[in-house]
Design a protein that fits this description.
Blueprint: H1 2-99, E1 109-110, E2 115-116, H2 123-138, H3 142-155, H4 162-175, H5 179-191, H6 199-212, H7 216-229, H8 234-244
Antiparallel strand pairs: 1-2
Helix pairs in contact: 2-3, 3-4, 4-5, 4-6, 5-6, 6-7, 7-8
Amino acid sequence: MRPVRIAFLIAALGAVQAHAGVFDDEEARRQVSDLRIKTEARFDQQAKAQLDLASQIQRQVEEIARLRGQIETLNYELETAKKRQQDFYLDLDTRLRKFESPAAGNAAVDPAAGTNAKPAGDPAKESQDYEAALNQFKAGKYKEAAAGFGAFVQKYPDSSLAPNAQYWLGNAWYAQRDCKRAIEAQSLVTTKYAESAKAPDAWLAISTCQQEMGNPTGAKRSLETVIAKYPSAPAADTARERLKKK
C-alpha cells in the first residue's frame, strides 16, 4: 500500500504544479496585456499632446506672420504718410516764398534814429543758398542738406528765410534718425523764431522726436503747447488729432 500512496502523492503534486504553471502563464499574459494597454494609452496621450503642441506652434507661427505683415503694412503707411507730409511742406514752402517780398534797396532806414541801419543782404544770394540746401533735401541728401541749412542760418540769421532754414535743418537731422539734434534745431524755431509760421510745425516735429525717444509725456506736452500757443494753426488741428490717439 505504501508504494501506491507515494505514487498518488507524486501524481497529485504534479497536477498542482501543472495547474500552477497554467495559472502563472495566464497571469503573465494578463499582466503583459495590461501593460501593453497602459503603454498604448500613454503613447496615445503623448502623441495627442505632441499634436496639440504642434498645432499651437503652427497657430503661433501663423499669428506671428500675420502680425509681421501688419507691422510691415503699418510701417509702409507711416513712411508714406511722412513722405506725403514732407512733400506737402516742401510744396507749401515753395508757394509761400513766391509771395514774400524781399527787402528792397541796399540799406534800410531806421525811422526812430533817422540814420541808415544795418545794410540789407543780397536777397538773390540768400534765395540761391536756401534753394541749394532745399534741393539737397528733396534729393534725399540729408547730410548735405543739414550742412547747407546750418550754413544758411549762420550766414543769414536775420533773413526772412532763416526760420524756414532752421526748420528744415531740424527735418534734415530727423531724416538721419538723429532726434537729439533735430529737437535742438526745432527748439530754436520755437524760441528765436516763435512768431514765424514754422514755429507750430516745429513743435509737432519736436513731439514726434520725443515720442520716438520714449518720452510720451514730453511729446504730449509739446502737442498741448501747439494748441495753446497757435490754436488756429493747421498744426494745432494735427496736434488735436494726435492727442485723441494717446
